[in-house]
Inverse folding.
């Protein structure tokens, strides 16, 4: 995710310090000066298991109009990321996810599935994600 965003010369990327959480990225658009927070989640899928559960730690979750979740699917068999990902406004997570009873908000991601799920409207093509994020910042 960071590499893809870094290819755009109009974006500056930041990680919170001293936070060692590599899945949290702040993107600053150099022209508009708008900032977008990205929480990146990666799930593992394979031929035998084409769906995965995305977990958000409920006690530290705070929705914000400038924060989005990006969910990437790692294809274990191919050793590559799936061409489909999710880009979800954080304000939509409570509507999308269910409380799993263990302190997490959880929802299912099935990359490549054609049937409509609750997450279906947030599907994006991974190669176009950088452009989508830049659009949100302008």
């Amino acid at each position: 995710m960071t590499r893809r965003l870094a290819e755009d010369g109009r974006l500056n990327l930041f990680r919170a310090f001293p936070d060692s959480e590599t899945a949290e990225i702040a993107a600053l658009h150099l022209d508009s000066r708008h900032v977008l927070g990205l929480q990146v989640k990666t799930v593992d899928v394979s031929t035998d298991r084409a769906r995965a559960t995305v977990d958000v730690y409920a006690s530290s979750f705070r929705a914000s109009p400038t924060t989005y979740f990006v969910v990437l699917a790692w294809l274990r068999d191919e050793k590559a990321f799936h061409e489909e990902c999710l880009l979800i406004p954080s304000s939509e997570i409570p509507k999308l996810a269910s409380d799993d009873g263990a302190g997490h908000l959880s929802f299912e991601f099935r990359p490549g599935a054609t049937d409509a799920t609750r997450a279906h409207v947030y599907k994006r093509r991974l190669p176009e994600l950088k452009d989508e994020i830049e659009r949100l910042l302008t």
Strands lie at 11-14, 24-29, 35-45, 52-57, 67-75, 80-81, 84-89, 98-99, 104-109, 123-125. The radius of gyration is 15 Å.
